[in-house]
Amino acid sequence: MTFDIKPVKTKNYEGQKPGTSGLRKKVTVFQQEHYTENFIQATLDAVNASGFTLVIGGDGRYYGKEVVQLIAKIAAANDVKKLIIGQNGIMSTPAASNMIRKRKANGGFILTASHNPGGPKNDFGIKYNIQNGGPAPEAVTNKIYEITTKMTRYLIADIPDIDLSTIGTTTIGEGDETFTVEIVDPVEDYVILMKEIFDFDMIKTFFSKNKDFKVLFNGLNGVTGPYAKRIFIKELGLSEDSVMNCVPLPDFGGRHPDPNLTYAKDLVDRVRNEKFDFGAASDGDGDRNMIIAKDFFVNPSDSVAAIAANAGEAIPYFKKHGVTGLARSMPTSAALDRVADKQGLLHFEVPTGWKFFGNLMDAGKCNICGEESFGTGSDHIREKDGIWAILAWLNIIAFRNQKEKIGIKDIMLKHYSTYGRNFFSRYDYEEVSSDSANKMVDRLREIAKDGSFVGKTFEGYEIEKIDDFEYKDPIDGSVSSHQGIRIQFKDGSRIVIRLSGTGSSGATIRMYVEKYTNDASQFEADTQTTIKSIIKAAVEISQLKEFTGREEPTVIT
Ligand code: G16
């Protein structure tokens, strides 16, 4: 070994338990002495990283570059053989998933707090992904957490800081005892993958023949800017003004990089006022997406259903590989199940968290999956993928327009006429005190257990069943309990209540409601008007106001 390795004495920090998708905390928490080092060491120990090749991606947020340097020094000290790092520490979450798979790496770190704001006073996050390119399953994250509770030391190598700005390979050490760092273009391999999946020629021809089809993409100053410019402008021929906020910034320009109707309001306003046919946004790390048109907002639960319904015909990747199964997270509406039923496909309902799709995909049981939280993706990688979802929509539109002039709204109305419409909305109550949120959910769990609310009627809706969702993974048999309270009504409508696992302070209560109709006269009804009385019932049943003092949600999607 030609570099020194030093053990550093440390102490335990509480609360290093990864949530829905990695460890997310305020930057100031990560900046505490040894805090980040502990978590990196615990992760490397949990996966026995000796001899590993690891990919490092990140959304470019504040504190990311410092953490890349720490990972390099701790990885070298723990006998990791090679790191593949996105230039300047930037690589979107889907691109990192692809890189792990393509380069047959053993796993990787992704430095992101996703859609949470960035900057010195905001959030940072570290997530570990395994060999299949997907987020570490609970067995691994629980092990990491367990190790963080018993930390006495971490190892650090005395190597110089890595030059993250220059593409190329550097090897430190000699003979068998080497540590190699490769800095890669984070966009190139991802673009190659997208070109294998979608019909770029067809989309390009559609754009050039329909110059009046106006597109606007909002990168929210997250990681997708360079990917969007390369794909939408260079490859597909759209004009420069088809993209906005496409420079990745460490604080996302002070915005909340979450593609929804509230936080991507600048996109929503422009799409509606300037009459764009296709509007889209992605989040901080590029795994979420929102699809909107001048006259229609595509709810994420509907988006995955529409993609699944059209994929086999319109998208080359699915024409070639076929579609075997579909999966959604439990709170996501059942629109996807209806497609699976009609097309004779397998379908699965998993807890919230993309990690739960990994086993199903690896086993070839599911190809397309999605979540209400603006996540859509397929088995091309093991993460949800914002740009993929946008390209899927563009590919479907280009394909359908070969026969007739048809836009987003027409495609969705046709979809509803075949499958019916699942009206869906999510109410978020952010930064509620953890104590009151937990008490509220504990009470609901009691009600679910004793069955005392079954048969009761709220706002005209009679409760048929209440339970606390538990998932048994059909592949490895692992069980995940307490994944959310499901309140099922007799008419098929549903309420789900759960606490978010991605916040960095306090608690966020998520309340999801769903109502189905196959009455064509209702397909264009306003969602909020349609679900108003179920929301009232949800607030009443949960006693949300009494527990939290909150009158209104922070965000409605
Ligand atoms: C993560 C997970 C998703 C999950 C979302 C919201 O997304 O990967 O599977 O749906 O969080 O989770 P929660 O409701 O617990 O806040 P991301 O985009 O934040 O990585």
From TrEMBL:
GO biological process: glucose metabolic process
Cofactor: Mg(2+)
Domain Alpha-D-phosphohexomutase alpha/beta/alpha: 16-152, 203-293, 301-403
The keyword Signal belongs to this UniProt entry's keyword annotation: no
SUPFAM superfamilies: Phosphoglucomutase, C-terminal domain (SSF55957), Phosphoglucomutase, first 3 domains (SSF53738)
One GO CC term on file: cytosol
Keyword Isomerase found: yes
EC number: 5.4.2.2
Catalytic reactions on record: alpha-D-glucose 1,6-bisphosphate + L-seryl-[protein] = O-phospho-L-seryl-[protein] + alpha-D-glucose 6-phosphate; alpha-D-glucose 1-phosphate = alpha-D-glucose 6-phosphate; O-phospho-L-seryl-[protein] + alpha-D-glucose 1-phosphate = alpha-D-glucose 1,6-bisphosphate + L-seryl-[protein]
Keywords linked to the UniProt accession: Carbohydrate metabolism, Glucose metabolism, Isomerase, Magnesium, Metal-binding, Phosphoprotein
Gene Ontology molecular function: magnesium ion binding; phosphoglucomutase activity
Family according to the record: Belongs to the phosphohexose mutase family.
Protein name per Swiss-Prot or TrEMBL: phosphoglucomutase (alpha-D-glucose-1,6-bisphosphate-dependent)
Organism: Anaeromyces robustus
Source species taxonomy: Eukaryota, Fungi, Fungi incertae sedis, Chytridiomycota, Chytridiomycota incertae sedis
